[in-house]
Amino acid sequence: MYSHASSDLFRTPGAFDEMSGFGNEARTPYREVRRWLEETPQDLLQTRGAQAEHLFRRTGITFSVYGQAEGAERLIPFDIVPRVLTRSEWTRLERGLVQRVQALNAFLADVYGPREILRAGVVPEDLVLLNPQYQLAVVGHAPTKGVFTHIAGIDLVRTGGDDFYVLEDNARTPSGVSYMLENREMMMRLFPELLGRARVAPVETYPDLLLQTLRSVAPEGREEDPGIVVLTPGHYNSAFFEHSFLADKMGVELVEGVDLFVRDDIVYMRTTEGPRRVDVIYRRVDDAFIDPLAFRPDSTLGVPGLMSAYLAGNVALCNAVGTGVADDKAIYSYMPEIVRFYTGEEPILKNVPTWRCREPDALREVLGRLDQLVVKEVDGSGGYGMLVGPHASRGQIEAFRHKLLATPEKFIAQPTLALSTCPTLCDGRIEPRHVDLRPFVLTGADGVRVVPGGLTRVALTPGSLVVNSSQGGGTKDTWVSDD
């Protein structure tokens, strides 16, 4: 039923399988799932998969892919076979996630304030101060309650039993939490008995925890009943469904820039009953477009004067302006040092080994091994602008060689990891596919919270390591079950 023969591991023998490890027996957290797969006829699994797709389509859970000629919205494929973690595995991951996000927030507070880490030479000044995402407009300004990254999505990959690595940090506007919640809802509809037998930790508290986080960072004097909104670029945005979904789940208004205005450094929302004050904005609009008076003057997505209100301390922006500097993949390569600098502890979660192509020795190493490495743009996202050497043609490799020689500072390189595989329903058969995991970490004035699980993304193409939905990837429900 479940054969590894079809899995291309890119020269890396024996990828760890989430269900069976490096052997054939089901690992403890997967025993119920293995039994379920063995007892359930393949045609019934396929029928349930089709039902899930129909329900998702009817609900309107779609996303848009920029640059597609057809401009059509797509359904992110959902796989009905869950990805399962034990409670002890999750406890360790949670500790590492909290440590890492606390270090990220300390780093952001520092580089926009005293810059101690730069003066200490731990991180090169130019990587921060010349970074396109470093916003001079907020230098010397601490956001309300001192939190920069309120919502973080930390991408993890697994290569062995206890070997988890952080692939990247998403500190600006991480997306995908709506799929985490809807995937669980779908599994509860289709397989309630299986969920009950596996004793899975709940994730449906996320909207309440998000609302609690947003309330906690309201400006001084506005904590009692703050006005909270979700600011979206509009329905053409690829993640608009998520914006609408979260606003609805939290019971707050979904607004566009035209729905808000600023008067005397206070933000208001236009309503049929007159202006209503806004104290906290969960914004899904990038820095460059958030205020045409402070950033891009041609932006129609933002709110004129919003930055004045923000700098006056009259509104909280979640996430804060300027967090993109922590998204940079060159900064990522310094995260072990950043964690040590701010926490005095060894990192619980490891980085993937990374070559900084801006460094001559590293560049020489990378150029000599392009067919073996993954090369990424330091400010890239969504699986775009990258080279997966073992899967690339000679022409693609040579094109990247020219890019590296021209602008080496724009790239980092990493080894091609044998990402763990997970049983996945593919054309009526259960086959292994590579996966990653994006847990969501909430940081407010009242502490750090992590919902057990996260979004598992799966590369549906056989052998592919690219799990991004924009590149044809799908999603799975992620279970944290008792050991």
From TrEMBL:
Pfam families: CP_ATPgrasp_2 (PF14403). InterPro entries: ATP-dep_Glu-Cys_Ligase-2, CP_ATPgrasp_2, UCP005522. Residues 82-459 form the Circularly permuted ATP-grasp type domain. This is Circularly permuted type 2 ATP-grasp protein.
